[in-house]
Amino acid sequence: MTDESTMPPHKQHTVAVVPGDGIGPEITKATLEVLRATGCDLAFTFVEAGAAAVAAHGDPLPDRTLEVLRDADAVLKAPLSAPKGTGRIVRRRGGRDVTYPSINNALRRELDLFVNIRPVHAFPGVPARAPEMDIVIMREISEGIYSGLEHRIGDVAAEAVKLTTVAATERLARYAFSWARARGRGVTLGHKANVLNLTDGLMLEVTTAIAEAEYPDVAFNDMMVDAVGLTLAKSPEQLDVVILDNQYGDILSDVAGGLAGGIGIAPGANIGAAGAMFEAAHGAAPDIAGKGIANPMGLILSGAMLLDHLGEAQAAASIERAVADVLADGEVRPPDLGGSVGTAVVGRAVAERVGELVSRELTS
Length: 364
Description:
This protein is α/β, with parallel strands linked by helices. It has helices at about 25-35, 50-55, 65-70, 105-110, 165-185, 200-215, 225-235, 245-260, 295-310, 315-330, 345-364, and strands at about 15-20, 40-45, 75, 90-95, 95-100, 115-120, 135-140, 150-155, 155-160, 185-190, 220-225, 240-245, 270, 275-280. Strand 8 (about 150-155) and strand 9 form a beta hairpin. Helix 5 (about 165-185) packs across helix 6 (about 200-215) and helix 9 runs antiparallel to helix 10. The longest helix has 21 residues, at about 345-364.
C-alpha cells in the first residue's frame, strides 16, 4: 500500500472548453463525462467562439474568449462552423489588421500554435479500407496557402499567396523529428517542390538540412504529396510520421481518417510553445445537429491527448483503451460506424469503461 504522505502533491489542471457549433455541444457533453470519469482534477471554464459567440457577443472571437484560452493549461475545442466563401475574420494584431480565412485558423494563430498533430490508426472491430494504418500527420498550421493573403482582381480573377518561412518550417521540423526520435519512428516530408520550386522547395531544403544535421538517427525521406496520397491508398504501412504543409495536411489527414475507418474517430491536437488546443478532426456537421446521433469518439480521443499533454498519461491511456474496448465489443456503435446508438449512450459507455479501468488500476 502506498503511504499517502510520500505521494507527490495533487495538481489541478485548468481546461478551457469551447462547446462549438453544430454537433459541438452534444459531443462536448459526452467528452466531459469521459474526462470526469478518469478522476483527474480538471477545472473547466466555458467560453464561446464561432456562431455561438456571434449570437452572444456579435463577434466570432471575443477578446475575453482569447484571454481565457491563453490562461488555461489546455483547451478542448469542439468543431466550429467555417462558412463557404464568407468565413474570413479580421483582427487587430501588433498594430495592424490581420485577416484569417476561418475561425479555426484564427484561433490557432492567435494562440500561436504551429503544429496540428493527427494520429490515424484503425481500431479492431471497425471496418476499414486500411486496417493496418498507423501514421501521425504533423501539419504546419501558421502559414502556407491558408495565410489569409488572398484578394480578388476585379471581376475576372482571384489570387492567393502561399507563404513559407524558414522559421515556421524549422520549428515544425524540429518538433516532428524530436517526437519521432522519442518514439523510434521515421519521418516523411510530403511536398510538391517539382512544381512549387520556391515555396515547397524551401520547405524541402530546410527540413532536409535539419534532418541531416540534427537528427541523423531518425529515418527520413521526402515524397511528392500526390505520391503520399497514392501510398495512403495502396500501402499506408510505408508511412510513419508525415510532415505536411497547412493545406496538404488538412486534406490528407481527412483522407487517412476515412481509410482508417472514419473521420468520426480521428482526434487532433494543436501545439505551440506556450499553449495547446485539442479538437476532433471532423467538422460541425450542422445537418445532424440536435439529433443526438453524432459520434463523440474523435473528441473523446482528443481529450485523451489533452490529458497526456497535461502529464496524466495513465488517465489518457485509460480513455484510449476504453474507446478501443467499446469499439471492439460492437454493441455500442454510432450510425457513422454502422450502428444505431446515440451520442449520449456512446459517451456513457466509454465513461463507464474508463471508470472500470481506473478502479482496477487503483486496486492493483
